[in-house]
Amino acid sequence: MLHRRAKASPTAEAMVGAAGRVVTAIPRGGYGEVAFCVHGRPLKYAARARTPLASGVRVRVSSALSPSAIEVAHLGPAADGCP
Description:
There is one protein chain. The protein is mainly β. It is built from no helices and 5 strands. The chain has strands at residues 19-24, 32-38, 41-49, 57-66, 69-77. The protein has a 5-stranded mixed beta barrel with strand order 1-2-3-5-4.
């Protein structure tokens, strides 16, 4: 029987520059969640932004704050499917 090793999820630092979609609104001064599709797999990271962002907004990762948290900037409205 073949055993396939699951690819490790990318670190927050590796996500810098990636586009995603806000799935839990990001409030002023707080955290929300941003989803990404990486190699066909959905991933979510805790995220903050300089301005509040509503659910569904497309964003780009501007920096890694910790291994599991990112800072994002607004890109525009989300399209259907993966961000």
